[in-house]
Here is the input.
Amino acid sequence: MKLYWETLFEEVSTEKSLRQFLNPLRGYEEEFITGAIIDIGCGQSDFLLDYANKSSKIYAIDNDGIQLDYLRKRAKVISTNNLENWEFIKLNFPVDALPKDKFSVIILSNILHFFSFEQCVEIEKVVDNIAECGTMIYISVHSYKFYMNDPENPDNNEYFKHYFKIEDLKYIFPKEKYEYMFVAEIDKIDSKQEIEIVNKWIDKYLAINEITDISIINEIKEDYLKNKSQSDIQVIFRKL
Here is the structure.
């Protein structure tokens, strides 16, 4: 995946990435409590870039130092305060302790599907521990309709550990503790831009691994470049 993140950084400018980004948190910004914004498993987070120039403290959390470096470079492009309010922290979530602060927003975008359902139940306890009354929490996860989900395959949960239904999230984050502000199921196919990024990523992989057999190249590209059902669930809830 390091090759993919490198390709994404090279091919999509920060300006373009933000222009295309749809941030559902914007509709609730007037309701944010005072506090920091934290993105756990941030990658090259459009969320944090969208809030790059807020006065709030910003915590970028990831277990991959390369991703943090890419995000830092992107943030510098748009920052008006030289990133003085940012902290880039490499840690292994949820094993390592998160920074101690009061958080107005907690972001868990495209990370929970890397954990089993049982692990997600334990992760809720971590989130609950750092959330204040009024903290907004954003979550995006792969839906059970995601193209890679094949329950008949014995290796189905080798990479993504769990594919979600809305009921799963409501069990993990019960309504007794969280007020659900926004729930959306998003189904889409890859855009031309996304397919081109994947194509360039594959070319890099093939070159590094010295794969030149045309039949193997065509087989790899046919599998990765076909239209796929990108199905995700997005939720915003507020800690009660």
Remarks:
- Strands lie at 36-40, 58-62, 86-90, 103-109, 131-142, 178-188, 230-239.
- The helical segments are 2-11, 14-20, 46-50, 65-78, 117-130, 166-172, 192-208, 214-225.
- The chain is about 35% helix and 25% strand.
- Residues 35 and 104 are 5 Å apart (CA to CA).
